[in-house]
Amino acid sequence: MADLVIVGAGPQALTLCCLLLQKRPRWRRRLRIVDPSGTWLTRWQQQMECYEIPWLRSPSPHHPHPNPHALRNFAHLQQRNRQLEGPYGLPHTGLFGDFCRQVISEYQLNEGVLAASVERIRLPQVGSGQMQLALSDGSTMTAGRFVIATGSGTPQLPFWAGAISGNHPPEALQHSDRIHLPSLHSLQSQRILIVGGGLTSAHLALGALRRGALVHLLCRRTLKHKSFDADPGWLGPKYLKAFHAEPCMQRRHRQVLEARDGGSITPETAAQLRQAQRGGALQLHEHCEVHSARWCASHWSVRCTDGHGLEVDRIWLATGHRQGVSQQPLLRQLQQQRPIDLVNDWPVLAADLSWPGSAVHVMGGLSALQIGPAARNLFGGREAAQRICRAVIKQ
Ligand SMILES: Cc1cc2nc3c(=O)[nH]c(=O)nc-3n(C[C@H](O)[C@H](O)[C@H](O)COP(=O)(O)OP(=O)(O)OC[C@H]3O[C@@H](n4cnc5c(N)ncnc54)[C@H](O)[C@@H]3O)c2cc1C
Ligand SMILES: NC(=O)c1ccc[n+]([C@@H]2O[C@H](COP(=O)([O-])OP(=O)(O)OC[C@H]3O[C@@H](n4cnc5c(N)ncnc54)[C@H](OP(=O)(O)O)[C@@H]3O)[C@@H](O)[C@H]2O)c1
Questions:
Q1: All structural domains of the chain
Q2: Nearest to 365 by CA among 91, 112, 124, 156
Q3: Is the distance from CB of 389 to CB of 177 less than 8 angstroms?
Q4: For ligand 2, atom 12, which residue shows the shortest CA distance?
Q5: How far is it, in rounded angstroms, from Cα 36 to Cα 118?
Q6: Residues with Cβ within 6 A of ligand 1?
Q7: pLDDT for 100-158, tens place per residue?
Q8: 309 in helix, strand or coil?
Q9: Which of 75, 229, 308, 391 could disulfide-link to 352, CB 3.0 to 4.6 Å?
């Protein structure tokens, strides 16, 4: 039996483990981490590699170590200050990865991840008591407390993509989750339609352009340029004070959506895309959506809502993920066993991010009604870890 089981071994879970072990080293024996990969940060590293992301979007104090200066100190000690980009010190992907490896080893967490997926959760009948978890390897675990840090929800697919019959090769239509740029050696003269307006769409476009493709980037609104997902005022009291004082969860939900305002790309990627546009290899279609797409033996014939047609070889959907209780199997089970208020499918959690009436905490995007617009980011992980840690230590 474990006192605390953390489901998922991404950056949010690592942030919580480090903070807890810093405050209460003896918790090491009472802690279990479960992730199908059996190692830390697998999905994080995969997504950085798949889209060939050169540096993070978040500033240098955002990382899993409890000391916000730790990444800067690491870069300094390793004489890698130049791998902190621009005025916010955005860490290069390699530097961030090396730093995280050092953090994992500093907290002796190398061997700590059990390679399995948690498939079912059973809450005790009433109030407190042991919870039971069923794992993909057939084993069960009991735990007094449980943290769900399983990352983004399910891929968001436009409705027209659902209407396509499957007579095309799989690589002709892919969500960004399935694209691995490094294995696409050449896309010379291939016509690629990328749907989206977030940073993933920009990185995919740049990756395709580097491989010789002709890219159509289709955004349903104007392509927005912002350094961060949300204004930096959301990373401190400037906006969060009023947000936390807001008693109405519907209003908080609206504030989170407005603060992120859909997808956006950074000014640096925007400049690179503009250059490709000038060179003629990229065409940007704003305020435009796909109306329908038909596979014609060797290519797509696409009809857009603005009336024009496109002939392309591949369609890539960089349309993000659906976040919601209904999108996460474990949260669906919790909602069945202990129903709570939802706002547009987001859970109304307690201030310590616990699922009301249980000892299950939720980290990541679905803690946004408590943490704010940066809940799914590294910053959100730090905030969530502090709240959960206080609850764990108090018990
Ligand atoms: C391409 C990309 C780049 C990003 N860059 C940044 C950035 O620069 N800065 C920033 O702040 N944010 C960034 N984000 C947003 C966010 O920080 C990351 O998505 C981050 O990985 C979220 O961390 P996480 O721990 O919540 O989830 P994840 O990294 O997704 O980790 C969740 C883990 O849970 C595991 N899991 C899922 N279900 C189960 C289960 N049932 N049982 C056991 N384990 C399970 C998964 O295998 C996974 O390993 C980026 C997102 C993307 C997509
Ligand atoms: N470190 C990095 O360099 C890096 C790289 C990639 C991603 N990221 C981060 O990862 C997170 C996810 O980014 P993301 O780009 O994958 O997702 P995202 O930010 O959620 O953007 C998804 C985009 O898809 C569009 N979209 C969704 N459904 C659509 C539909 N049915 N039809 C047309 N367009 C649709 C959205 O349009 P609207 O804007 O109109 O809603 C949005 O522009 C963000 O926090 C981002 O900053 C970071």
A1: 2-153+322-394 (3.50.50.60), 156-226+264-320 (3.50.50.60)
A2: 156
A3: no
A4: 320
A5: 8
A6: 7-13, 34-37, 42-44, 47, 51, 56-58, 62, 117-118, 149-152, 200, 330, 364, 376-378
A7: 999 999 999 999 899 999 999 999 986 567 899 999 999 999 999 999 999 998 999 99
A8: strand
A9: 391
